[in-house]
Write a structure and sequence with these properties.
alpha+beta; peptidoglycan lytic transglycosylase activity; Ribosomal Protein L25, Chain P; Barwin-like endoglucanases; about 450 residues; globular; 13 helices
């Protein structure tokens, strides 16, 4: 390997250009454009614009007919954007409102406290690539969170709200799908669910150059060269026949495609065989392409079809075009069996209506965030415990809704906009910026 490593430096630029970022393809998935279908026989009637509000929302924002409840987001402070900001520390910080003034219910605060406490070991151990915090900064808050007590009072006492950049938030949704699968290949179950290939190589480019710290690529060795790993089309045409284990066999290629986007899910085995849970292991290093955007650009979706359910219906009605369209997303996810609930990028279990995916360059993984959106069901406290291939940039979040029909419906149509406030250890803003609370100077 040492002799090969010397030759790899000449291929790094090409590999970096062709490979995608690490992490989940889209939380487990992003669902920036699409989400995951459930088998047709079990899917409830589509309600593309009707979703249940979060159960911990006040009753006056949950009408009995299940309509989406509009909300008025808290206004963000006006700041001048920092061009080319690559981390939260360089995007500009502004003090947010007092946490005690935020509309957080006791049940919501308690659920977020539990998720935050679960994330604390990783939060204190990991290097914060956002540039905002150090592991030791979180110790007082983590100790208090583990002790319990009044959750609302805990957040107000130990943390402070901070607006990153212009604070303009965009939130989508993901969930844990359930699709049909079999442990053996059999008629009706012909789509392989692959584990990690033996020839897939992860390259930490920071080991070759300080200028490339934090950047990684994935590929395979071909002779003396590192080349991009096989794309979706090559994999579906048999490129992994000798290099990747097959964990199971799925019944429907459309269902499997969207399970890859979600990043984890359940396989319902035939003949009463129970459920096999699978989770994200790695991906092929290719860039993620949201087919929902492609379909909108090409006029393939009629008005009202832009939800996940509408996209799935189109793919089923146009199988040949649908296969070609799905292959335009060259990214491909490899799975592993799970013994318990799905886990986020931190390695901890994610919780429906509490966990969210974020870009770790702008949000410390494990940190709470308050989303004030134009949708009441997604407004409130979340904990950033996951990442996603399409969840990039400041104030971009992918909210996790758990499993089941309601989770599918909500995640499939989630598109919330408003303001995000990151919750950091009290005193962080003053430490980073002696002029805390002031917007960056006007250019």
């Amino acid at each position: 390997m040492r002799s090969r490593a010397g030759r790899l430096t000449g291929t790094i630029a090409l590999a970096l250009a062709l490979a995608a970022c690490g992490g989940r393809i889209v939380p487990p998935g992003t669902v920036a454009d699409t989400a995951e279908p459930v088998r047709p026989s079990s899917r409830p009637p589509a309600r593309p614009v009707h979703y249940l509000a979060r159960p911990d929302q006040p009753q006056n924002v949950r009408p009995s007919d299940g309509r989406i409840v509009a909300a008025t987001p808290i206004a963000a402070q006006t700041v001048y954007p920092v061009a080319g900001a690559t981390t939260a520390a360089t995007a500009g910080l502004v003090a947010g409102p007092p946490i005690a003034s935020l509309p957080i219910t006791p049940a919501q605060a308690e659920a977020a406290r539990i998720a935050f406490a679960r994330s604390c070991p990783g939060l204190m151990r990991r290097t914060d690539t956002s540039g905002l915090t150090r592991g030791a900064d979180w110790r007082p808050a983590c100790a208090a969170a583990s002790a319990g007590s009044d959750a609302r009072a805990f957040f107000a006492q130990y943390l402070e709200a901070v607006q990153v950049g212009d604070g303009r938030a965009f939130a989508t949704g993901y969930y844990e799908p359930e699709i049909r699968g079999s442990l053996e290949r059999r008629p009706g179950y012909e789509v392989p669910v692959y584990g990690r290939p033996t020839d897939l190589i992860d390259v930490d480019l920071g080991r070759f150059s300080d200028d490339l710290k934090g950047k990684k690529v994935r590929g395979r060795v071909d002779g003396s060269n590192l080349v991009p790993y096989f794309d979706r089309t090559q994999i579906e045409e048999g490129a992994l026949a000798r290099t990747a284990p097959v964990i199971a066999w799925a019944a429907d290629p459309v269902e499997m495609f969207f399970l890859q986007i979600q990043g984890s899910g359940r396989l319902r085995l035939p003949d009463g065989g129970g459920v096999l849970r699978i989770g994200y292991d790695t991906q092929n290093g290719r860039a993620y392409t949201g087919i929902g955007s492609l379909m909108r650009q090409r006029g393939l979706l009629a008005p009202g079809q832009a939800s996940m359910q509408g996209i799935v219906a189109w793919l089923r009605a146009n199988p040949d075009q649908g296969r070609a369209l799905m292959r335009e997303n060259k990214s491909f996810v490899f799975f592993r069996e799970l013994d318990g609930p799905p886990q986020g990028a931190m390695g901890y279990a994610v919780t429906g209506q509490v966990s969210a995916a974020a870009d770790p360059k702008f949000v410390p993984l494990g940190a709470p965030v308050f989303l004030s959106l134009d949708r009441a069901d997604a407004s409130g406290l979340w904990v950033a415990q996951d990442t996603g291939g399409a969840i990039k940039g400041a104030n971009r979040f992918d909210t996790f809704w758990g499993a089941g029909p309601n989770a599918e419906l909500t995640a499939g149509g989630m598109s919330g906009r408003g303001t995000a406030f990151l919750l950091l250890p009290a005193g962080t803003l003053a430490r980073l910026n002696p002029g805390a609370g002031l917007a960056p100077p006007q250019p």
